[in-house]
Write a structure and sequence with these properties.
Length: about 270
Amino acid sequence: MKRADDYADYLQLDKLLSAQQTFSEPPHHDEMLFIIQHQTSELWMKLVIHEMRAAMAFIRDDQLEACFKIMSRIKHIQTQLLNQWSVLATLTPSEYAQFRHVLGSASGFQSPQYRMIEFLMGNKSERMLKMHEGKPTEHAELEAALNAPSIYDEFLRYLSRKGMPIPASHTERDWSKPYEQSDEITAAFCTIYENPQKHWDDYEMCEKLVDIEEAFTLWRFRHMKTVERVIGYKQGTGGTAGVSYLQRIVAQQFFPELWHVRTNIKDVTPHE
């Protein structure tokens, strides 16, 4: 069995700590912050993908309880990603303006791992693949995720196998297409939420999914406010509309019926 010689060898710190190469000339002090912020975010996103794929495998194998710790871990990772924005928010507009030009057209919008997380959570868009065509390996991985069920799709298929009335249109479909909300699925979730003791594992999984969507939405909101604080309403380096684009995507939902069910649940009238 291969063993590491020491701590630095095990973590490959020589590679990790030499990856922070600044482009500004002379080097601007705050560019290091910007690079490390985004590199560490990519490491956390790598772990989110790793954990989410494991959770999806358990769902496919009808082992829902095995997902719960994984889903909790994903939520805690997302908390780390959310809290990082407070560090980047210390970057003032005038400081960023002094090295923003070295980014060229580079933008977090182009992150293949961010796109992978969106695909795994169900925000599918074939159009988004085009920006990755120049990198065949990442394009192939994203294309495979685009054409496969999301974590929400896998959960709906699990519920269908258990006998819940999930329409066939949502258990076998073209997975590359955007998800369409279903009143029938909302009704199925009402059954679960109105009888949690009878459907405890299903109920718990529903709430775990809500946890990760809420955390993702909060991350998007914090991203938007940090961008607004640092560059105002300038166009994004990747060509997006910047803050106005980020404002629009904050409102997107991944698991719509899990939010709609809260309106439809019947209130319980206490016995007199």
